[in-house]
Every structure is written in structure tokens, then in C-alpha cells.
Design a protein that fits this description.
Length: 311
């Protein structure tokens, strides 16, 4: 279902008239998990706020320069990922926020689900903290490769992705998709295919038809625990906001961020070192918001109720 911004406060009020309500503002204590500006010109973590970056498809998907992380795509669909300290959403209101800034190249194509960003639980699987080569012809069991797909039956990674049509006409769509968790149908690929993901209906607004060459865009991806059984996903990009509620929680832990671009979406070549070969990220960060207790004093018929946002 599509939703408005999740409500942060709720109260069950018994019978009686309220003489007044006094509410203390909710205060958030953001914790920076990482904030990588790529100033060091290094794919490996060199500073306290940096993170390591790896390929999740082809070994040629990454290039680095001071202030820029390049996702080399062009004529090939390619992805990148990072692993960070596990973040657990265990209290209602807890949220993980991804922020990113990138610049498009000279060439921008027209592709369905051309831009993809996702958050996952790596399950602590050894080998994901490194370059991973995976494709339709050479899947990797690190991403979960099911027996029905000819694999050994490794479990798929819990998580979700937000994908956007790129200049695909007036019906260009935005979607949230949940990764189906099992050991049967996993494709051995991360986000290079929508197979293995279930669409969380309804689709988003038909507003994906805005992409321009040589343009800088800012985006966010947020996951918030809104009840014991519900996660709210919210994405923003180019002034567009898309939110849905997922009522099936496979994991409330996230420690893997990934990006994937379809072939012929950004750039005219898949060769490293070329100016028109994909997106250039200038900053990517992950922040964990831990809500502080918020209280409200309800006065009515001599009664006093204290409401807390967190247990």
C-alpha cells in the first residue's frame, strides 16, 4: 500500500474529555554509520567515516578518483556494494537513512528500472566484504542461489530495493521490491534482475521521466520500523517522494548498501577511464536515527497519562 509519512506518535485515549495536551518534542540522536566523500581517492576505508567499496557484478564496475566514485556501466549492467556495521531496527521509530549524490554522464538512455538502490542483511556471509563477480551466466551463491535456478540452495539476502524507470516515457514508474527470502528461487545475482524480488504494491508515481545528462542529483533511501510487523520504505530523488509499507519483516538488520544500473542507461561505453562511462558519486552516507523518549501529558478529569514513543 502507498502511505504518507509514517506517524511518529500514537495514543489510545480512554473515555473522558481531555482538558488539554502538553507534548514534548521528539528528539532524534542521529548516528553516522559512514559518510564517504571519496576525498581520499581510495576504494578502501582510510578514514573513520569512510567505507570499503566492491563490485557486485563485474570487476570493471568501479573506478575511483579524489572526490569521485565511478560506477562504470555504459553498455553493461553493473553494480557496486559496501558492507557496514550491522544496524538493528529494534524499537518503533528507529530508522536507517541512506543519502547519496551523483552526476550523470554525457549519455542518458531510456530504460525500465534503470536505476536501482537497495539495503540488505548480509547474514554475516563471508566473501561479501570483497569484490563479487556475478552475472546471468555466472551466478554467485554469496547473493543466494536457489536449487530451482541450478544453484546449491544458499539463502537469498533479506532486504529491498527501490528502482526507477529512466526516461521511459510518461508512464515511467518508481517501485519498491522486497527480496524473496528462500533457498529455492534465488538467482545468484543481487540487483541485476528483478527476478527473485516481489513488488510491493502499488507502484509509485509515474514520475521517473526526468533524467538529464551532466546533471547532479541527490537521493535518499530510508527504512523505518513503524510496528513490530511493519517496515516503512521511503525514497526521494529529484524532488519526488515515494513511500510504501511492508508488512512482512524478514529481517530488521541491515548492513549492506548496493547500487545497480542497467545497461545502456548511463554512458556510451563500459570502459574504465572514459568520460562517458557511467555515474560519478560524490558522496554516499548512512545514518541511524535513534529516537529519544518523547512524552505527552494528558490532562482530563483529573487524570494524567504519560506517553512514551519508545519502550
Amino acid at each position: 500500500m502507498q502511505c504518507e509519512s509514517p506517524r511518529l506518535f500514537s495514543a489510545a485515549v480512554g473515555a473522558g474529555l481531555l482538558a488539554g495536551i502538553v507534548a514534548a518534542p521528539a528528539l532524534a540522536v542521529p548516528v553516522t554509520v559512514f559518510d564517504d566523500s571519496f576525498a581520499d581517492g581510495d576504494l578502501a576505508q582510510t578514514g573513520a567515516l569512510d567505507t570499503d567499496w566492491w563490485t557486485s557484478s563485474s570487476s570493471s564496475a568501479l573506478e575511483i578518483a579524489p572526490g569521485e566514485l565511478g560506477l562504470v556501466t555504459g553498455t553493461s549492467g553493473r553494480g557496486i556494494h559496501t558492507i557496514f556495521a550491522p544496524q538493528v531496527l529494534d524499537d518503533v521509530g528507529d530508522q536507517l537513512i541512506v543519502s547519496y549524490t551523483f552526476t550523470t554522464p554525457d549519455t542518458v538512455g531510456n530504460r525500465s528500472t534503470g536505476f536501482r538502490v537497495g539495503l540488505f542483511d548480509s547474514l554475516g556471509r563471508a566473501g561479501l566484504d570483497d569484490n563479487v563477480s556475478s552475472s546471468s551466466g555466472s551466478p554467485s551463491d554469496l547473493f543466494g542461489w536457489g536449487v530451482a535456478s541450478g544453484g546449491p540452495g544458499t539463502q537469498t539476502l533479506p532486504g529491498f530495493m527501490h528502482d526507477i524507470d529512466v526516461n521511459n516515457g510518461p508512464d515511467s514508474d518508481l517501485n519498491f521490491r522486497e527480496h524473496t527470502v528462500n533457498t529455492v528461487t534465488g538467482t545468484g545475482r543481487l540487483m541485476s534482475t528483478t527476478t527473485g524480488f516481489s513488488n510491493i504494491s502499488p507502484s509509485g508515481p509515474d514520475e521517473g521521466d526526468f533524467w538529464a545528462p551532466n546533471t547532479t542529483y541527490n537521493g535518499t533511501l530510508t527504512v523505518q520500523l513503524i510496528s513490530a510487523t511493519e517496515l516503512a520504505y521511503t525514497a526521494t530523488i529529484n524532488g519526488i517522494t515515494h513511500s510504501v509499507v511492508d508488512d512482512t519483516i524478514d529481517s530488521n538488520t541491515f548492513d549492506m548498501l548496493a547500487f545497480h544500473m542497467n545497461s545502456r542507461t548511463f554512458g556510451s561505453t563500459n570502459a574504465q577511464g572514459e568520460p562517458d562511462n557511467g555515474l560519478d558519486f560524490s558522496n554516499i552516507s548512512v545514518t541511524f536515527d535513534v529516537p529519544e523518549p518523547a512524552s505527552a501529558v494528558l490532562l482530563g478529569l483529573g487524570g494524567l497519562a504519560l506517553l512514551r514513543r519508545r519502550a
